[in-house]
Here is the input.
Amino acid sequence: MTSLDSKTQIVVVGNGMVGHHFVEQLHQSDANVEITVLCGESRLAYDRVYLSSFFSGASADDLALTTPAQYAEWGINVVTNALVTDIDRDNNKVTTSEGQVFNYDKLVLATGSYPFVPPIPGNDQEHCLVYRTIDDLLAIEASAAVSKVGVVVGGGLLGLEAANALKQAGLDTHVVEFAPQLMAVQLDQAGGTVLKDKIEDLGVTVHTQKATQTIEAGDTCRYKMVFADGTALETDMILFSAGIRPSDQLGRKSALTLGERGGIVIDNHCVTSDPNIYAVGECALWDNKIFGLVAPGYTMARTAVSHIKGGDAEFVGADMSTKLKLMGVEVGSIGDAHERTEGALSYTYLNQPEGVYKKLVVDSEQKYVLGAVLVGDTSDYDTLLQYALNNIELPEHPESLILPSSDAAPALGADALPDTASICSCLNVTKGDIISAIEGGCCSVGDVKGETKASTGCGGCAALLKNVVDSELEKRGVEVSKAICEHFNYTRQELFHIVKVNGIRTFDELLEQHGEGLGCEIVSLLWVLFWHQSTTTTS
Here is the structure.
């Protein structure tokens, strides 16, 4: 750091979710710095996780994570449409495509990634698009208005999100995947099969083991995709979502050390081969790994802030477990989902009529959780994740953790979790942080959210957060509401009976008749489970 009478000049290249998180954390740290943000897009940071909501009515403003007014209030100099083209490492300067020059003491590269488009002849035609930015969404919307059939190339997490976007845009939607199954990174073969069935039940046609060789003029549609096996598929629009590549061009051009397959190499402090340059998020390569989830990027951002301030925080990798909804289908993947650990054993549960598949992977002595796969019902995700992350010993019958209505399944209450247990992985909030917030005067889930920011990222930890907060408040003699959340003044069991007795068929109907506001992640995650249980019991 520089002397107290002069501020360290911090230039941040990129203003995606991770770049914005770095800015937010550095601002809140009260460091003696002056921050300049160079944003390559015309818009400031927005939530890429929920891009598909654009096609169900969300606006660009709804997705925004900040505003120019907010940055101005924080005293941050921000420049949009500022594509950085050069780094002068000898003189600590960066130059944009418009010729603007900015000096820095510390430079933070948060340039993210770009969509990988397979080198298929014909992939550069007018209605061949990618799914990454709001501008991409606008292009998809325009193409959808003059199209009837859409194809997504790629059946991974991003590909299925893109398929959801096309489906919501009103197109006859297909997914083309080179691998034998969907989401091959996160799911095993059985889980991928169940997911494929559920996706097709929703009206999306899935084509696996298809290698596109050319994109030609179509006979009945705009284009024809010709596959290596001799078959073809006609479509009006093609949306490439076949993975990402790190946006490491600046690092390459300025001779920073890069990985063999790309990515700007960083150490445990997120420092590159130049001690004055940091890299965070999907452009960064740590231990030869690129982390494609937002939570590890947030951890990198906090680590870089700590190092700039002289702290000792380190980035030592990240848990890549994930829970999400793809076109309304619940999917969860934890740890060693593919049983690659030597001696690993597994328990599986398959309910084909309801489209529910669960696999629990344990060590050879059946003492600890190594991984899990959940498709169609992720209600066990939080419990299994805590077993895995905190090395909590398994009960006598591990299979009870994934079997429905199992009396043998022990409840893993909040008290069983150590203070170091991660409750919110996006914002790195532990149980200990929540306890500290309560001891500091927080008296509700809302108070704890405001103090710690827990559950303000993806929202997937909302139910677990409520359990921990309620447990800690009850220990202190505070009367706790049994309402499932602030939007529904009922317990989980009461809400289930409402769904069952009244034959409620949609979440919107439940919210309109018995809730208030917009609802939240807690109840929306339970909705599928409620509906399956109520229809099964009444049939």
